[in-house]
Amino acid sequence: MDPRLRARAHGGVARWLQDAGELDAATIGRHLLQSDDPRAAAPWCAEAARAAMQAKDHTAALAWSERAIACGCDAATEAALRTLQVGVHDARGALDEAERCAALGFQVAPRGSAEWYRAASSVAVLAMRRLEPDCFRALAPALDEALRDTSHGIAAAGLATALYPMLQAGQYALADLLLVHWNNVGFAQLSLGEAERAAGTFRSVIERATALAFQRIATSARHNLGLALLFLGRVAEASALEREVIAEADAQGDAHTADLARLYLARAQLAGGAFPAARRTADEALPALRASPSGRVLGLAIRAQASIATGDLAGAARDAGDGMELLATVGSVDEGEGLLRLTCAEALLAAGRTDEAVRAIEEAWAWLVGRAALAGPREARQRVIEGVPEHARIAALARRYAGAAAG
């Protein structure tokens, strides 16, 4: 058949299917892609991408989204599809591709739109994982505008849709998301070893979220402030604050935050020498964190630390091993990996398995050096190593057993 006739035929079939009430976007999209007006396929390809994503067919979702973009879909649709692609690549552990798609989405999204804020959030959460503070500074104008703009729901609702902890929980309740990004900035500061700055950030979030009656955000920031206080050595304050957060989160029906607060409380109990209490608190939190890899890795590490301190070396080895198996399965977590690696080494040392412990220390040190390198200059790398308690303990073990030179 003549190519022009074939193209017109495909267009005719697509129109007939639409008139007949065909609901499968992929079927219509395939015909329109081969028609004499392939640009008309864009909305159908976009819908096919969304349907594939809902069906968890990630390969098809990527393919259909690229077709929609190639057909010249509008900017808002392209931004939404780039966000979809971020989710696929992130789930596959392809962070470079996820970052590329997030940046493209932020570039094309109409400024001030819901997709613009969601794209900014994707860029920010990926930057946090790589410890890239410059990305947060680059996004500051967008985030500042969102915080100032209360005239319509998009600014209040669209900012940080994908950010921690909403990303882990899969919750996108728009009314709760205005200040999540700044809470996340504080957590990134903690990861960079800047506990004092992080504490200031969390206090600012608490103040503004409370004023705006965003109580869950305020509770989440108070939870993170407890960890900052713990990093600063203010153990009693951290313990008291996490107990308050547990009560607040339970009252709000936010079981996930309550259980994470129990883990931070257990960390504070460890720091205060209350080892049996730390074990009981971790025991209470862990069962509900099965669906949260980060929470479970952190909880297993904390419980193993308590077991080492109370002489239960078999329990410590079991929890540390389970944590490393989970880490190997998921690839990476947002929190807890450093403490887990430290705990594995300390459990082996406590059991007298020195050769294995040295290997674990070398692996932990290599991981920490790689993580610190992402922070940039030497001073920033040193803060990552020395300003996070478990990182500092890894460095001390590496100097003692592996001959490492900090920095």
Care to describe what's here?
With 407 residues, the chain is mostly helical. The protein has a domain at 234-326. Helix content is 76%, strand content 0%. The protein contains 22 helices and no strands. The protein has helices at 3-19, 25-33, 42-54, 58-70, 75-91, 95-108, 114-129, 133-148, 153-158, 166-169, 180-191, 195-211, 215-231, 235-252, 255-271, 275-285, 293-309, 313-330, 337-350, 354-373, 378-386, 389-402. α5 (75-91) packs antiparallel against α6, α13 (215-231) packs parallel to α15 (255-271) and α18 (313-330) packs antiparallel against α19 (337-350). The longest helix has 20 residues, at 354-373. Mean pLDDT is 81; it is low at 147-178.
Q: Which range best describes the helical content: under 10%, 10-25%, 25-40%, 40-55%, 55-70% or over 70%?
A: over 70%
| SS element count, helices | 22
Please identify the structural class as seen in this structure. Answer: mainly alpha
Largest sheet: none
Q: Which value, in Å, is the CA radius of gyration? A: 24 Å
Shape category: elongated
Strand content: under 5%
